[in-house]
Write a structure and sequence with these properties.
Elements (H helix, E strand, L loop, with lengths): L1 H15 L4 H6 L6 E6 L4 E8 L16 E5 L18 H7 L3 E4 L10 E2 L14 H20 L4 E6 L1 H12 L7 E7 L11 H10 L4 H6 L3 E2 L4 H10 L7 H12 L11 H7 L4 E2 H13 L9 H8 L16 E5 L8 H10 L3 E5 L9 H4 L3 H19 L1
Parallel strand pairs: 3-4, 3-6, 6-7, 7-10, 10-11
Antiparallel strand pairs: 1-2, 2-4, 2-5, 8-9
Amino acid sequence: MNTEIQNLTKRVRELETEAKEASLILNHNYPVEEHTVHTPDDYILTIYRIPTSPKRNHQNQTAEKPVVFLQHGILCASDDWIINGPETSLAYMFADAGYDVWLGNARGNTYSRQHKHIHPDTSDFWRFSWHEIGVYDLAAMLDYALAVSQSNSLHFVAHSQGTTTFFVLMSSLPWYNEKMRSVHLLAPIAYMRNHSFILSKLGGIFLGSPSILSWVLGSKELLPITSVQKLMCGHVCSEGSMLKFLCSGLLDFIGGWGSRHLNQTLLKDVCSTHPAGASTSQIIHYLQLYISGDFRQYDHGRAKNEIIYQQPTPPSYNVQNIKCCVDMYYSDNDYMSAVKDVEYLASLLPCVELYRIPFDDWNHYDFLWSNNVKEVINNKIINKMMRYDDFV
């Protein structure tokens, strides 16, 4: 027994020092750079760059390349774009196609738990929602990537909350529209009137409006990845495990039941990198959207709203400020991004193209980790980006 405990302790320590995303990319022989971005409110973010592909060694590496930036969803990280492997993951496919690839990480996730003055063990660190991720983090990361790449515009791809932060940034700081070449939003979330996730319906009752409970539960760290979890994932979600159904079942429960598309071989990697941490206020903000039916800033309660916004209710985001053309990819079986909500949002945008996935069981996570994501989505995005770059 003592030997087993010692071995378990040793393995946990090994996982604690396990290489980050950079090593995962290097393992596939792709070059990778780790960059640090400082936000205006002093959060310190780690983002990654894949500047080229081993499949393009014969080509001129000094030539200027178009830039593409990928932003993850809630409780996720930049791992989302690489764990599908070099043949299917969007980040590698972009590099193979000749793009300068940047992978963002929002404050509070596995790679961005730092602040210049505040320790992540304090609630002050977690006093943010996806509004701050949009106007501070995303803006700072885009500016940094463009500066390092010596470019004045980029292609943008996002999933889930990453799309929300895009809508926030473009609505709040509309001059960022000019930095967009093409925009591809997977499972976009803004309006949530038809949101169907059961826990959102229940949570909205208690946390969807300002209350003592939402005040108590807000600004807390939510579901960070742990070494013990990584160790368990290696057993529970591995091939041949009798409990593997729990791993796929959890993704189905959150993202949409009945999908036949999930790449089951990825479950171990998904489990060992997710959830990647967030602030409880991000969840509460979404619950507020569900209850209000509006796409608006965080509701602090009437008294604090008067101080922050100079009005009793939070201001709505003016999505008509989103002048750049947007491609939105959505599906019938997505519990987070409802068809009616996506189509309503599209009716408000000046320039939008919709792509409804032609499978009635495609769920929220199939946009990232399905067996056929390369054929259904990735190739479509890359082809459109390359047409843009060929003719502009």
